[in-house]
Structure formats: C-alpha cells, structure tokens
Amino acid sequence: MGERKKARDMEFQSFVVGRWPRLLRTAFLLTGEQHAAEDLVQSTLEQVYVAWRKIAAADESDAYVRRMMINAHARRHRRRLKEFLAPRDDSGLVPEVADTGDRISQADDRGALLAALAQLPPRQREAVVLRYWEDLTETQTAEAMGCSVGAVKSNAAKGIAKLRAIPGLAETVTHGRRL
C-alpha cells in the first residue's frame, strides 16, 4: 500500500513541476496579481492532490485542472462581479518569468496589455485569456468556463472590442500584431 501511495505522490509531483509555469501564467492573467495567482494555483493544486487518482485517469488532465482553477477563481469572486481583483494601476503587477516560447511576454507593450486586461469584466477577461493566451478552441474554452460556445464567442468579441478601443493599446497593434 505504501509503494502505491509513493508512486502516486511522485506522479503528482512530476505533474506539478511540469505544469506550474503554465498554471501560474494562466492564474496571473485571470487575477492580475502575482500573489493572488500563486494563491489560486496552490489552492487548486490542493484540490487536485485530493482528487489525483481521478484526475490522473482522465483523458485530458490538463483541461480538468484548468477547469478546477477557473471554478476556484469564479467562486472567489462571484460576490464581487463588478470589482475584479486586479490592481487599479500597474504598480502591483509583478512580471512573470518569461517563457521562451511565449511571444506575448517578449512584447515591449506587455504592461499596457496587462493593464488593459485588468479593465475587462471577469467573464470577458476569462474568455480572452483562455482563447488567445492559452490558445484554446472555442469548445475547449466553453468547457473550461462552464458555458456555451456562443457565450465564449460573445465574451471574447466584447473583450477584444474593449481592448481595441483603448487608445494606448492601439499604437501597439499597428506593429504587425492584431488584437
């Protein structure tokens, strides 16, 4: 019995080490604050550890864990839908460690984009982050957010429209990137 538990613990540890940067990046984009992102990932991983046997057996364990994290984030902020836990200014934002393959983290205008994301309502922000940062399909995003594909399309379109309307962001889009 002890050997099986050790093997599960090692498997879980390997999962955490391999997924931590991506989970933290997603949590940071959802919360807009480094400490809140770390708390979100840690509380999610606590739940994941408890249900690890079930999650490890799932076909899409990454999607399962991402959904758990989004649900945990939504639960924390359900009462405060109008006040999103992103800093009012960018002074509280701590830049994440750049992922060498993450082209967005290499952009000079990262701070402006993060500040603009912080202005979006929670559901629009979730849709934009999952569709464009996580590069999920509309169906995967709908599953992760627990809504219909139409709601994802609507929230993402509204979020992108709001981002495009921000004057400081408009100049950054003209360098060959489109929001």
From TrEMBL:
Domain RNA polymerase sigma-70 region, residue spans:
21-80
Q: Which InterPro entries match?
A: RNA_pol_sigma-70-like, RNA_pol_sigma-70_dom, RNA_pol_sigma-E_actinobac, RNA_pol_sigma70_r2, RNA_pol_sigma70_r4_t2, RNA_pol_sigma_r2, RNA_pol_sigma_r3/r4-like, WH-like_DNA-bd_sf
Q: Does the keyword ATP-binding apply?
A: no
State the source organism's domain of life: Bacteria
Pfam families the UniProt entry points to: Sigma70_r2, Sigma70_r4_2
Which family does the similarity line name?
Belongs to the sigma-70 factor family. ECF subfamily.
Q: Which UniProt keywords apply?
A: DNA-binding, Sigma factor, Transcription, Transcription regulation
- The entry's protein name is RNA polymerase subunit sigma-24
**UniProt organism field:** Streptomyces mangrovisoli
Limits of the RNA polymerase sigma factor 70 region 4 type domain: 111-163
- State the SUPFAM superfamilies in the record: Sigma2 domain of RNA polymerase sigma factors, Sigma3 and sigma4 domains of RNA polymerase sigma factors
Q: Which GO terms describe its molecular function?
A: DNA binding; sigma factor activity
> Its GO biological process terms?
DNA-templated transcription initiation
